[in-house]
Amino acid sequence: MSIQARPWLDQIDPYRPGQRTTNPVGALASNESALGVSDAVVAAVSSAAGAIHEYPSPLADELRDVLAVEHDVHPDQILVGNGSDELIYLLARAYAAHGGSVVCADPAYRVDEISAQIVDAEVVKVPLSEWRHDLATMAEVAADIAYVVNPHNPTGTVHELAAIEQFVADARSRLTVVDEAYIDFVDDPESMTAMHLAREGRAAVLRTFSKVHGLAGARIGYLVASADIVATLRKIRAPFSVSTLAQVAALAAVRHPEHRDRVRAYTRQARAELVDLLSSAGYSVVPSQANFVLVEAPAEDELVSALAARGVAVRPGSALGVPGTVRISTPNPAGMQLFRESLPRVSAAVHI
Ligand SMILES: *Cc1c(COP(=O)(O)O)cnc(C)c1O
Fold first, then answer.
1. Are 290 and 182 in contact (CB under 8 A)?
2. Nearest to 212 by CA among 82, 36, 29, 27
3. Atom of ligand 1 nearest to the CA of 219
4. Which residues of the chain have pLDDT under 70?
5. Coil/strand/helix, residue 352
6. On the CB side of 81, how many CA atoms lie within 13 Å of its CA?
7. Which atom of ligand 1 is the closest one to the Cα of 211?
8. Which of 4, 41, 111, 182 has the smallest C-beta neighbourhood within 10 Å, fewest atoms?
9. 84 in contact with ligand 1, CB cutoff 6 A
10. Separation of CA 106 and ligand 1 centre (Å)
C-alpha cells in the first residue's frame, strides 16, 4: 500500500531546530533562558506530578484568570496553547486555509510560514528593510493574516509602538498578529507592547513562556485577541493540548515575577557584552532588542563548525532564511566565558 501526502505539502522546507550541545553552557542556538527555570517553578511542577492521571483543565482556567487580570482583558479574550507555535497553527487553519494567504517578513519566523503552507495558503514574503519589517509594503498586501514579529526573530530588530499602530490602521490584511515572544527583553517593554490593540480587538498578540520564563520544554504560550477569534480557535483546537505540568509551571512563573525580572536584567546586560565581543572581533552585528544577536558571517558554515568544535552551538542563518549570517543566543555567565575564550581563536581561523 502506498499513500502520497497532499500535493502542497511537497513545497514545505521543514523546520530545522538548533543543534544540542553536550555541555549546556554552550547552547546558544535556541534562544532559551540564559538563567534557566526558577526554583519556584521546579517545586510547583514536582508537587503537581502526583495528579497527572487527571486530564488538565481544557482552557487552563486558573492561568487564564491570572493573565486576564495582568492584561486587563476578559478571560474569554485569552487562549492558552501548547507553545505559542500551536496558536500560530490554529490561526492559519482558521483564517488562511485552502486558498487564503498570509503576509510576513522575509526572513520570517519559520513557523509563520510553515503553518500557512500546511493548510495550502499562499505566503507573501516582504523583504526586510535594513533588517526590520518593511511595514509600509506589508500594509499594502491584502492577506488574511499579517504577521509582525516584534522584536523580530531572527534579527532582534524592533518597531516602535507608533509604527505598529500605524500598520494596524493601514493594513489591508484582515487580521494583524503581533508576536511578542521577545518583548520582555526590549529596553522598555511597557512602551513597546501592542497589548492594548488586542484588548480592543484590533489585533491579536502572542506571548510565550518559552523565553524569559525559561519554560521552553514545558510548551506553553498564549494569545490575546477578540472573544470572537478565541471562540473560533477553541472550536478547532485539540481539547487537552496544554498539559497539567505546563499549566502549573506557567502559573508558578507568573506568581513569582522576580525570576523573570532577573532574567530580563541579566539578558540586557549580557547582550551588550556579547555585542562588544563580536564587534571587537570585527563582526557586524544587527542591533538587537531580543535575547540573541544576528551576526553577518559570509563564511557561515565555517564559523558554525569552528564554534561547534569548541562546544558552542549557534544557529546557521541559512536555517532561518538569512544565509551569510549566524544567530547567537545570549549566554549565561559560564557560556559568556567560553564564548570570550573561543572567539579570538575562531575568528583567526574564519574569514569574516
Ligand atoms: C521562540 C518563539 C516563539 C515561541 O514559541 P513557543 O511555541 O511558545 O515555544 C514564538 N514566536 C517567535 C518569533 C519565537 O522566536
1. yes
2. 36
3. 9
4. 351-352
5. coil
6. 25
7. 1
8. 4
9. yes
10. 17
With cell 555541555, the residue in question is 23
> What would the pLDDT profile of 132-169 be if each residue is shown by its tens digit?
999 999 999 999 999 999 999 999 999 999 999 999 99
Å from CA of 30 to ligand 1 middle: 10
112 lines ligand 1 (CB under 6 A): no
Query: Which atom of ligand 1 sits closest to the CA of residue 86?
Result: 7
Report pTM.
0.97
- The 10 Å CB-count burial string (b at 16+, else e) for 170-188 is ebebebbbbbbbbbbbbee
| CA–CA distances in Å: residue 218 to residues 14, 56, 113, 250 | 22, 14, 23, 9
Nearest to 192 by CA among 149, 255, 128: 149
The alpha carbon of 31 and the centre of ligand 1 are apart by a number of angstroms equal to 9
Nearest to 155 by CA among 126, 190, 130: 130
Question: 30: Cβ below 6 Å to ligand 1?
Answer: no
The dihedral over CA atoms of 183, 122, 89, 5, expressed in degrees to the nearest 10, equals: -150
Can you read off the three cell numbers belonging to residue 288?
Answer: 538587537
Any atom of ligand 1 within 6 Å of the Cβ of 208: yes
Give, using CA atoms, the residue closest to atom 2 of ligand 1.
181
Q: Is 82 in the pocket of ligand 1 (CB under 6 A)?
A: no
